[in-house]
Amino acid sequence: MSHRGTTPLSPVTLTRMQGQFQIDDGVADNTAGYARGPGVVLDLSGFVGAATFRASEDSTFAGASWLPFTGPSQPLTLEDRQGTHTVYAQYTDAVGTESPVFSSTIVLDSVAPASPGVQINGGAAFTRVSNPLVLTLDAQESLPSGVDAVSGLSKMLLNETGEVDANGRLVATPLDYQRTHGFVRSGSGEGPQAVHAQFVDHAGNASAAVSATIVVDTLLPSGGLSIVRGEHATADGYTNSLLVTLNQTAAAEPNGGSVSIKLANRQADLATATLQPLSSVASWFLDPTGVPQKTVYAILVDAAGNPPGSSPPASPTTPRRRRPSARRSLAPPSRAPPPSPCRWPPPTTTPSRPPRR
Fold this sequence. Notes:
The protein is mostly beta strands. The chain has three domains: about 20-110, Immunoglobulin-like (Sandwich), CATH 2.60.40; about 115-215, Immunoglobulins (Immunoglobulin-like, Sandwich), CATH 2.60.40; about 225-315 and about 320-345, Immunoglobulin-like (Sandwich), CATH 2.60.40. It has no helices and 24 strands. It has strands at about 20-25, 35, 40-45, 50-55, 65-70, 75, 85-90, 100-110, 115-120, 125, 135-140, 155-160, 175, 180-185, 190-200, 210-215, 225, 245-250, 260-265, 275, 280-285, 295, 295-300, 340-345. The strands form seven sheets. The protein has a five-stranded mixed β-sheet, with no helix packed on it. It has a five-stranded mixed β-sheet with strand order 10-16-15-12-13, with no helix packed on it. A hairpin with an 8-residue loop joins strand 15 (about 190-200) and strand 16 (about 210-215). About 30% of the residues are buried.
């Protein structure tokens, strides 16, 4: 102050102290905001100009001491309980000015997903579709009593071999979890196909690995059908009864597959005929109407659903050479006999009477 009055001072700018922060468990394979262990790291990059800091899960900082600020990454051990944790942090600058109290949250989930499961094509034992296989995938992330939050399913690991790494995880590229997934096989071969699955939650906990198997069969079944001559007939292809005996055969199916059969007196009726187990001998009623020569039509269907005379659904791969088509006579087209004809009634074997004189 001079004798003539006051001396003006330079303006002073007051800046609010900033300090938002994040909590990280330091593991790269989980989702931000989740941890699978109590040891976490506070990212205090926002504490610009900090000289000391303190952090606690108690908003009053009871028992928390001021510590020298040695860098933006500071370790902290969370309380030993599952669920949401809120951490409070505060710092002072070089002149001892205290910042406001800042907070951040994280969910502690150290429990792996339970009851993992995988089904292929709804649990079917066989399929005639080479690719893709339709997987149904599920695991449980249950909320225990007294816990307010779990991390939930995040990723799934799928492979064909069951190979795992040193941490017990399936060797596979992580995929975002979805309940239904189209799995494309690495090859196009016939036979048993296994798929192994494992589930990872947002905290990085991995479930046990599970697997399912299905038999891929794109080959058409083959076999034969014949009508046994009637009891009193003197030649094959004749009967005096509408009730006949059929001989049915089918080539052996690989991998434990079975063959069923549809029968009809008209080819047009095969589409709606009842599929029934194939037996070597079966009884059948011929159509009593129409011409004397009767025909029985048949279609074989294997356990994968391959019907003869039709191709499997289109797929990205080309199946191996199919077995011969078996429509009608169930024999290869190049040497197919007529479709099981039988004349009814049979021709008489009684000599004609001489004319009366």
